[in-house]
Task: structure prediction
Amino acid sequence: MLAAGVLVLATGLLCLLASIHFKGLRYFDRPTVARHPAFDRVLALGRWILVPSGLALMARASWSAFAVAGGLLALAWGWRRALRSIPFQARIVRREYDAIRRRHPGAAEDDLLRRLAWRRHPAWGEELIDQMVRDYATIEALSVMMVRMERGFRGFRGGIRRGAARSGPGPRS
Result:
């Protein structure tokens, strides 16, 4: 019974990983089967059925195995939430900004912000980056906005994807 619970739980986690992977791809980069409208729903349904079922089977077989598996899942969920949080991601952007500032000590603030935005997202284009630097003139404000744009909000999905344009006129010197 315990082995069956572990197997069902592992299958549910595999559905979760596949769902995250395929949602990260552009539509035409997905395999043909993953382009079907019901594909994402089937993976979501599989993960929502298999993970609790696997935990239930484990609880039925061994309460300690259930507690360990549930604790590890809760810990992994919390860790992922913390790493993907806006404050943590904004701190990473600020660290990158500090590295650019050390490399270019005499550069103006807006030029450093442009370099940062261009380095992280060359596909966004010079006009969008210039507008962002004008609207968010401090690293704190720009870092939060960049993280929000990377996540996608209100119809904007601006993260770098495979095959995105990486050439172009770069930041002004």
